[in-house]
Amino acid sequence: MQMLFGTGQDGAYPDLVFTDPLTGLGNQRRFFSKIARLISDRAEDPAPFAVGIIDLDGFKPINDLFGRGAGDEILLQAAMRLRAAMDAHSYVVRFGADEFAFLLPMVFSEDAAAQKARTLIEVLSAPYDLGARAARLSASAGCSLFYSGDETTELLVDRAETALYHAKASGRGRVVVYTQEMEEAAKRVTHVEQALRRAVSAGEVEPFFQPIVDLRSRRILGFEALARWTDPDLGAVPPSVFIPIAEERGIISQLTQLVLRRAVEAARDWPKHLFLSFNLSPTELVDQNTGLNVLATLHQAGFDPHRFEAEITETSLMTDPVSAEKILNDMRGAGIRISLDDFGTGQSSLGRLREIRFDKLKIDRAFVTSILHDKPSQHIIRAILAMCEGLGMDVVAEGIEEEGQAMRLIDFGCGGGQGYLFGKPANAIDTALLLRSAARG
After folding, report:
1. Which of 175, 250, 301, 427 is deepest in the core (most CB within 10 A)?
2. CATH of domain 16-178
């Protein structure tokens, strides 16, 4: 591979400390320097300009798919395309591993910035020549605009990174320009994060328990532990809000340890035939200490691993399947059962059921909700049940709220059920009262 030597965009032979050694483009340090200089030049008359960061979607597996060095070749070709797409005033650098950044001094509006970014995405989406083969990639971009002397280089880049995050979260090949609404949303997330860190340290996040029943007898088989958090200022914060924040901001391990410990301590006093089911996040399936941490918590609480089920989602397997498989096998070897949650809506394949041995599969509520009136959902559920019977796996249908749904699932041959029809999630005290009442009845 040949480096893109030449005069570059800054005159003859730029200082190597400002140059990316692979592509010959400027690097992140050069980018910050360029923005700072432009802010200084416009201090007296702060005319707008735009900055952006563009990320190659799906770049990480390139070397695995096309061989060693394919990733570098694609980066070289991407750099050449982006350089050619810049006008005389604009500037592009290699910003990170598979990220490039651009500075547009003559772009004065959000619409113009978005249009330029879309053009760059089109440029990057053409096939890449890898010799005997060709590869296609999409790209996502985030942009921010300078409007006044109050905005710093760091702030503009941070805003572009936030916009890029939103672009990638909404799908591939997207462009997002930073807005005031994003800033408010970012402040809200930071507020929740700070409150959550305090709550985890103070032990204020607690497990609630939802019953899982035998559909025919309605006998309780076990409970799923669900994290619940009520903050003095924020009120009840939904798990759909605080769990993703915990994962993104690196709090998920501490949160999991807290909720798991409190859950097994509560479940320890349940009748011995009841199991406890607990969700593991995608982050924990890439940490080789996860299995040891779970087993240590069970041991410290005196809770039998054979009464414990670890729930994982299809999507969580996709981050690092090899690591996930090892962690799950380690836990299974200690007697823990493994349950595949939200089946049918994730990103894995049926092949995953052959590669990793699961003890139980949970049918996603999306199919159960429509089971009474949607023929495709009925056929899908029947197919899942037939598959699980052939694989020797237990099945639980989630999200059952109506008696008619339960009866239809029984007709189809489903054994287990979970949902508001059988009980809403309740704290440890109310769950213990429920079990005493069931024992007397």
Report:
1. 175
2. 3.30.70.270
For β-strands 91-94 and 99-104, DSSP reports them as antiparallel
Q: Where are the alpha helices (DSSP H) in 210-357?
A: 239-248, 252-267, 290-301, 321-333, 351-355
Burial of 164 (0-12, 13-18, 19+ CB in 10 A): buried
Decide: pTM greater than 0.90. no
Whole-number Å distance between alpha carbons of 130 and 69: 10
3-state secondary structure of 225: strand
Q: Which helix (H) or strand (E) holds 373?
A: none
CA 281 to mean position of chain CA atoms: 9
- Taking the alpha carbons of 197, 201, 202, 206 in that order, is the dihedral positive or negative? positive
- Give residue 376's identity as a one-letter amino acid code: P
**Domain(s) of CATH 3.30.70.270: residues in the chain:** 16-178
pLDDT per residue as tens digits for the range 82-123: 999 999 999 999 999 899 999 999 999 999 999 999 999 999
Question: Which pLDDT tens digit goes with each residue over 189-235?
Answer: 999 999 999 999 999 999 999 999 999 999 999 999 999 999 999 99
Report how far residue 225's alpha carbon sits from residue 268's, in angstroms, rounded to the nearest whole number: 13
- Residue 28 tokens read as 């992140």
Q: Give yes or no for a contact between 301 and 261, defined as CB atoms under 8 angstroms apart.
A: yes
Asked if 247 and 281 touch (Cβ cutoff 8 Å), the reply is yes
Superfamily of domain 189-440: EAL domain (3.20.20.450)
Contact 22, 94 (CB under 8 A): yes
The answer for residues whose C-beta is within 8 angstroms of residue 362's C-beta and 6 or more apart is: 311, 339, 340, 341, 342, 343, 395, 396, 397, 398, 418
Please list, in sequence order, all residues whose beta carbon lies within 8 angstroms of the beta carbon of residue 193, skipping any fewer than 6 positions away: 245, 249, 251
Give the total residue count for the chain.
441
Q: Which residue intervals of the chain bear CATH 3.20.20.450? A: 189-440
pLDDT digit string (tens) for 9-23? 444 455 678 999 999
Q: What contacts 80, CB < 8 A, 6 or more positions away?
A: 4
